[in-house]
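Standup notes
- DV: blocked on the single-chain target, sequence here:
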Amino acid sequence: MTSSHSDALVFFGATGDLAYKKIFPSLQAMVKRGHLNVPVVGVAKAGWNLDQLRARAKDSLEKHGGLDPTAFEKLIGLLRYVDGDYQDPATFTALRQELKVAQRPAHYLAIPPVLFETVVQHLAESNCGRGARVIVEKPFGHDLRSAQGLNRVLLSVFDEDDIFRIDHYLGKRAVNNVLAFRFANTFVEAFWNRHYIESVEITMAEDFGVQGRGGFYDQTGTIRDVVQNHLFQVLSNLVMEPPVRSDSESLRDEKAKVLRAIPPIEEKSLVRGQFRGYCDENGVAKDSQTETFAAIKLEVNSWRWKGVPFYIRAGKCLPTTCTEIVGKFRKPPTLIPDSQLVEYHLRLRLSPEITIAMGMMNLAPNAEGLALQTAEMMATHSPRADEMDAYERVLGAAIVGDSTLFAREDYVEEAWRIVEPVLKKNTPIYQYTPNTWGPQEVERVTPAGGWSNPGERKAFAVASEAA
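- DV (later): unblocked, structure below
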């Protein structure tokens, strides 16, 4: 189906927490930039009316991002509301009436995954799905089988080109900056391969716990929550080959190839941890075996990366909040002792700021002979207040039919294939103390020379601030 601009946005779950914290601020920002000028129809079962939804939107904006009076007035002028049960066909009859003449609506399912099938079927039966797009919020399935089942449900009503599986991480400027760094700079190609890179680490650290989401998190865990989706997307951007064209399908072809080159994770290549005190959180089982930390070793059996180990680490209640990539270079053949060559790396920080840094060795001050010290040549960028939020970027892309920032059916299923074997195993879970880098057992899934912990690197840096 040819791409065209959606003529309405319907979002199910309009009274929910995600809408309150993320969606309303993103919609206002889209209006402010002139990217949203179609009816926005909220759907929920709350016993509300349109005025109550408008009040909810105002409160959301006052608490999350700031209310812009001009943009807000335009937003509430676009806002519509349908109150009803998702199980009731009458709700979708009312939705069809509220859509009026719209022929190309985009339906955003900001609702629990258990309701996806019900809503999709009702969209088809009520004629709301004809010519429409569907935007599906993660998690996309709980394992390979459920993801395949959900794909079948969606494809029974929508074409693949009209299915937009949201991973908001792909809407982050920093994540896409990895592609820009690799493919817009000729010099990177010379060293970003197995001949020069010894190992690659990806760390996603959070210094907080489950923040009142114990019930959800205890059914999910770190691997499902961030590794299988967010960090695999980062990995794909890091190791994919340059696409032959700039269209979305060529880009997504290369990402799918990355995952097809990764063997399933083995038990020996995974360490799961749980911070002490997790089982005391509301909604968490007292005997929970859900991980709040995971360290994984992967292989990417492609021509470029065969033999290079990739280490992925993510967790809660760690010493800092930061997402960072470190590629360690192979040591050069030299007369200088290996013990002195300790900081030879490429470092890409994705949050909280964007940093590109090259770690290298140089002569120490007042050195005698070849005494060396570590240094980083660094460029950094702190996000500006007017930069697009991830949800603003992905919702805007879905409305215009640009699939570049969304996961395709084959990609999602390949991601589950990689992690599913260990998800089904009863692998041990080890306790760790909050504000540490995970359990001691993580040593068996650790790069040569140890993990590069964000914030602990020696600060001999030559910095260049980029506005």
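- Follow-up: Confidence is low (pLDDT under 50) at residues 458-467.
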